[in-house]
Amino acid sequence: MKISALPDAELRQRLMADGVYFRTGTFVAHLRTRLEQVAASFGLLYSDYPLLEGPYADFHVELAPPRGLRRWLRPQVDFIADGHAPFAALPAGQAFPMFEWGLNWCVSSQAQHYLIIHAAVVERNGHAAILPAPPGSGKSTLCAALIHHGWRLLSDELTLIRIDDAALVPLPRPVSLKNASIDVIKRYVPHATFSPSVTDTIKGTVAQMKAPSESIECADQVAAPGWIIFPRYEADAALSLTPVPRSRAFMRVADNAFNYTRLGAAGFEALKGVVAHSDCYDLRYSVLDEAIAAFDRLASQAGKR
Amino acid sequence: MKAAPVLVRVLRDPECLRHLSPAEWDLLLRQARAAQLIARLALLAQRHAPDAIAPQVAPHFEGALLVAQRHREAVEWEITQIRQALGSVGLPLILLKGAAYLAAGVPAASGRSFADIDILVPRARINQAEAALMMHGWATSHHSAYDDRYYRAWMHELPPMQHGRRMTVVDVHHAILPITASSKPDSARLIAAARALPERPGVLVLAPVDMVIHSACHLFHEEELEKGLRDLSDLDLLLRGFAALPGFWSELLARARELDLERAVFYALHFSSRLLGTPVPMATLQAAQRFAPAPPLMRLMDALYGRALLPHHPSCYHGYSALAGRMLFVRAHWLRMPPALLARHLVHKAVVAFKGED
Q1: pLDDT tens-digit series, residues A102-125
Q2: How far is residue B298's CA from residue B314's CA, in Å, rounded to a whole number?
Q3: Successive 10-residue mean pLDDT values, chain B, 358 residues
């Protein structure tokens, strides 16, 4: 059963009372909230996710106004992971982005059975392209465009590498877009579903794009490593795809990992497994169509490898 | 009284893992995460009920064990480095707490992680130890002049020293309680009784009774009890591990008296047997009774620690949990410093908090 099977009123009612259990990738999350804004965006973006019955969840999270007088003066919101608030409260209007960031934090801080890279990851024909990149490099923009043009979304933020066999494990969640890229993607993928934009966050204006329902349905299918591509958006740049030596790519991906040092030898082996089976490139682009064409060329060559 | 939290029940009797409902597994993992006991729990489950581990929980156990394994390796490396640094000025390395459990290979090391490595050096040589560590890359992390003086004048340790490249932290102690505390355990006695580790030349740990007493002293003078259950579980494992040593139990009490730590040792025996079912011989429990506080105070301490030592997880909160935590916080400060000094210290901290760090 999917979350969309719950009528709106019942979804809100459940979120307020015992909370809603849903599956995202290999994780089960449990969300409780009385906040209308969170309920509305959650209903919009998570309608295709499997609805579960409790009692088990990997992450138990809640969004709630902090206690105290302040709530009447300037409403705020706390992200609460199983009773503890790991972050400072944010203005109430940022509650839904905070849910997304908080859930990412739960995964990256608590799921130590994966090597976790800060990277987008998309799949075609069984092979995955990993896109590690610092904020502002156009990773999410590219990811959002790719997953509406033939590529499957594994994750926009957290690349999960299975420790034993270096397979890439899906975590399809909404794609987080920032500032100018919100309008770029709204024009580029007009049929996609977006949460309302939230202004003045620490990342500027943010909006989430719903994950394609096929990606959510295939969330149990892992992908083999195929490419590691370091994207970089540059205004007016001509498209260029430059090979990167594997040794160099290894170090750059390790730098983008959340728990590489915590996992020691196991993390090293898993990353080695991924890099050994990936072609590595620096990608510079300014036009989404050209970038997607470059990805598609790589995918078509993969069959001949 | 409410039933014991599932994590406490499992630590008491790991066989009960075989009979947990899915809801209890869910709660067990959450409580273990809050108490920083996932890796220890994972090892316990693998030993006692490998087939019963809930499939959803298994990956979290695997992750915790990977991290624990890496932690052990990192600590081994750190121990070697610190030993070399101290060795350069002819000081042996005496490890305390977590690092000592690990180096000595006692059961309390199981699934144990810790942020800093604690070491003990004779007070007369503390400057030498500091200099040696500085020569090998450790430096006092940033502190205000007040904090620096606070540590050096009143505390039982130097301000924490962090390694410039590896960012690991060493706490250099010359005693196990602040100079200002009312109990005055003589650290020369601890050092004199410390044991060499045959397979680690130049590395020592406290004698078994002293290891227990230090663990007790630490827990029952601690101001923040977030890791209280983990520390109590350490005590439980230490006591179980040493229980069969000849003369251990009688020596424990005699030594507690010598070190002026009878009360802490009494609490350790009392709460670990009460909460975790540590098999303390009846004779020892009875003999320790004379170190117990007067009955009204005992009832209060039972109420306070009975709450504060549970996992710090919402499922374990009783009506007065927060109050119990605050009262033990005040008690710990009270034990650390005489009232006038405490007042002065708290006023300074309040002013700093008000004006911002200098």
Answers
A1: 999 999 999 999 999 999 999 999
A2: 26
A3: 86 96 97 97 97 96 96 95 97 97 96 94 94 94 77 82 92 88 91 95 97 96 91 98 96 96 97 97 96 94 93 87 84 78 75 64
Which pair of structure tokens corresponds to residue B144? 């205000």
Distance from CA of A265 to the nearest CA of B (A): 8
- Using CA atoms, how far apart are residues A113 and A267, in angstroms rounded to an integer? 10
Nearest to B64 among A112, A114, A264 (CB): A112
Cβ of B70 within 8 Å of Cβ of A263? The answer is yes
Nearest CA in chain A to B29: A58
CA–CA separation, A98 and A92 (whole Å): 10
From CA B205, how far away is CA B251, in angstroms rounded?
Answer: 18
Burial class (CB in 10 A: 0-12, 13-18, 19+), B53: middle
Flag whether residue A67 sits within 8 Å of chain B, measured between CB atoms.
Answer: no
Closest-approach residue (CA) in chain A for B166: A261
B35 contact residues in A (CB cutoff 8 A): none
- CB–CB contact A60 B70 (8 Å): no
Q: Are strands B200-205 and B93-96 parallel, antiparallel or unpaired?
A: parallel
The residues that bridge with A28 in the sheet, in sequence order, are: A23
Q: If residue B272 lies in a helix (H) or strand (E), which one and from where to where?
A: helix B262-276
Q: So what's the ipTM on this one?
A: 0.92
Minimal Cβ distance to B25: which of A28, A56, A111: A56
Which residue reads 């109050």 in tokens? B323
Instruction: Round to whole Å and give the CA distance between B62 and A117.
Output: 19
Question: Shortest Cα distance from A220 to chain B (angstroms)?
Answer: 15
Taking only the tens place, the pLDDT of each residue in A236-264 is 999 999 999 999 999 999 999 999 999 99
